[in-house]
Design brief:
Number of strands: 7
Oligomer: single chain
Order of helices and strands: EHEHEHEHEHEHHHE
Structural class: alpha/beta
Number of helices: 8
Distance between the termini: 47 Å
Radius of gyration: 18 Å
Largest sheet: 7 strands, parallel
Length: 264
C-alpha cells in the first residue's frame, strides 16, 4: 500500500515500513518504538545505553515485532555515521526517522551555563538530529519519500528560567523541522516536530515528585493531568503513517492544553 492510496481502514498502518528511533531505551523513545512496531513497522532502536537498548529490542522481538538495537551517542559524528549505515543496511530502506535523543542540560539561569554546557546540550539535542537527518534524508528521498519527526518540547515555545539551554535547543529543533521540510518536501520527505508538555517519563520524575510545582502546572493545564508516553507516541505514529501524509513543517503540541491556558 502506497502513501497515496490508503483506505480509511489502513490510514495508520505501517506494515512494510522501517523506522529508526533514537533515545529509544526508555521513556518517550521506547514508547514511540513500541507504537511504531505495534502498527507493523520494523524498528531500529538506538541509544547510548547499549545494554538497555538491547533489552528493549529483545522485548519487542519477544512480542512478535521486528527490532534491532544499535548503541549510539548522537553527539559523536562517527557514531551517527555508523548508525545511519546500520539502519539503511538492516532492511534495505528507511521510511521513518524519529530524533528523540536528548538531555535536559543544567538547571538555573542561562548566565550560569558554561561553554561546555552549551556545547553538550546543542551537540546532543540539535546537532545530533541534524547530522542524522543529513545522513539519511538522501536515501529516503531516493526511495520516494519518508517521514522525519524531531522531538521538541513546549520548553521551546515559552520562556523558561529553569532549563534555558534545553528550551533553546528545542526551539532550534522546531526550526530545523521547518527548514528541512522546505528543503526535502519536493522529494517526498515530510519533516515535523512534536512538542510534548509534562509527560510521565523518567526525565520528569523530579518534577512529578514536586508537590508545589505539580499543583501549579496542573492548574495551568486544562486537562488537569500529566500526559502519558503513549499519547505522544500515537502522534508520532500518525505522522509516520498515511494519515499524516499531508502534514509537513509543523510543530504539533501535545501538552493537555498548557500552552493555551490562561490559568483559569
Amino acid at each position: 500500500m502506497s502513501r497515496n492510496d490508503a483506505s480509511a481502514a489502513g490510514l495508520f498502518e505501517l506494515h512494510g515500513q522501517v523506522a529508526l528511533v533514537t533515545g529509544a531505551a526508555q521513556g518517550l523513545g521506547l514508547a514511540i518504538a513500541q507504537a511504531l512496531a505495534a502498527q507493523g513497522a520494523a524498528v531500529v532502536l538506538a541509544d547510548r545505553d547499549g545494554a538497555r537498548c538491547k533489552a528493549a529490542a529483545a522485548e519487542l522481538r519477544e512480542a512478535g515485532h521486528d527490532a534491532l538495537a544499535v548503541c549510539c551517542d548522537v553527539s559523536q559524528p562517527a557514531d551517527v555515521a555508523r548508525l545511519a549505515e546500520a539502519a539503511l543496511a538492516w532492511r534495505g530502506r528507511l521510511d521513518t526517522l524519529v530524533c528523540n535523543a536528548g538531555i535536559p542540560g543544567p538547571a538555573g539561569p542561562l548566565a550560569e551555563a558554561g561553554d561546555e554546557d552549551w556545547r553538550r546540550v546543542f551537540e546532543v539535542n540539535l546537532r545530533g538530529a541534524a547530522r542524522l537527518a543529513s545522513a539519511l534524508l538522501p536515501a529516503m528521498a531516493g526511495q520516494g519519500g519518508g517521514s522525519v519527526v524531531l522531538m521538541s518540547s513546549i520548553a521551546g515555545l515559552r520562556g523558561n528560567k529553569g532549563l534555558g539551554l534545553y528550551g533553546l535547543s528545542k526551539a532550534a529543533l522546531a526550526q530545523l523541522a521547518r527548514n528541512l521540510a522546505v528543503e526535502w518536501g519536493p522529494q517526498g520527505v515530510r519533516v515535523n516536530a512534536v512538542s510534548p508538555g509534562l509527560i510521565r517519563t523518567p526525565l520528569s520524575t523530579g518534577l512529578l515528585g514536586n508537590e508545589a510545582f505539580m499543583q501549579q502546572r496542573l492548574a495551568l493545564t486544562p486537562l488537569r493531568r500529566v500526559g502519558e508516553p503513549h499519547e505522544v507516541a500515537g502522534v508520532v505514529a500518525m505522522l509516520a503513517s498515511c494519515a499524516g501524509g499531508f502534514i509537513s513543517g509543523q510543530n504539533l503540541v501535545v501538552d493537555g492544553g498548557t500552552l493555551v491556558s490562561d490559568g483559569q
